[in-house]
């Protein structure tokens, strides 16, 4: 892992301070370049991490009911073969977000496990 030192304005530093433990994940989400309504899901997750959640809160996190309903709708359309190209792109982006969340929760789970001696 690479350690980086950043210089930034004080007001920006204050905004990102609560999400400091989650900053690599936030940057990864931000760099994914979502171009569909899936960006709303990524934004929800970033907003959650900006609250400075505990590892246990991260483990229990789920996106809003609205975002979950949207995913279920896309999955139903996909299963029936009725997805538009735009909806397919959105579903693909949501899958990327879900993959990143799985990776984040796996890392957090490792932190929560007692070290075996």
Largest sheet: none
Structural class: mainly alpha
Number of strands: 0
Approximate strand percentage: under 5%
Spans where pLDDT lies below 50 across 5 or more residues: none
User: How much is the radius of gyration in Å?
Assistant: 16 Å
What is the helix content?
Answer: 55-70%
Number of helical stretches of at least 4 residues: 6
Mean pLDDT: 91
Taking the alpha carbons of the first and last residues, their distance comes to 24 Å
Please indicate the count of domains: 1
Shape: globular
Secondary-structure element string: HHHHHH
Structure in words:
By secondary structure, this protein is mostly helical. It is built from six helices and no strands. Helix 2 runs antiparallel to helix 3 (about 40-50) and helix 3 runs parallel beside helix 6 (about 85-110).
Question: Summed up, what is this model?
Answer:
The protein is mainly alpha-helical. The protein has one domain.
Can you lay out the helices and strands and say which pair or pack?
Layout: H1 10-16, H2 23-31, H3 38-49, H4 55-59, H5 65-79, H6 85-112
Summary keywords:
about 120 residues, mainly alpha, globular
């Amino acid at each position: 892992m690479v350690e980086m030192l950043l210089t930034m304005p004080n007001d920006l530093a204050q905004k990102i301070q609560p999400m400091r433990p989650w900053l690599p994940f936030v940057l990864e989400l931000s760099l994914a370049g979502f171009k569909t309504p899936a960006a709303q899901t990524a934004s929800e997750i970033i907003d959650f991490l900006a609250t400075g959640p505990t590892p246990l809160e991260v483990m229990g996190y789920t996106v809003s009911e609205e975002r979950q309903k949207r995913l279920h709708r896309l999955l139903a359309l996909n299963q029936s073969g009725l997805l538009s190209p735009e909806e397919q792109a959105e579903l693909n982006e949501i899958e990327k977000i879900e993959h990143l969340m799985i990776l984040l929760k796996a890392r957090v789970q490792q932190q929560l496990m007692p070290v075996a001696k």
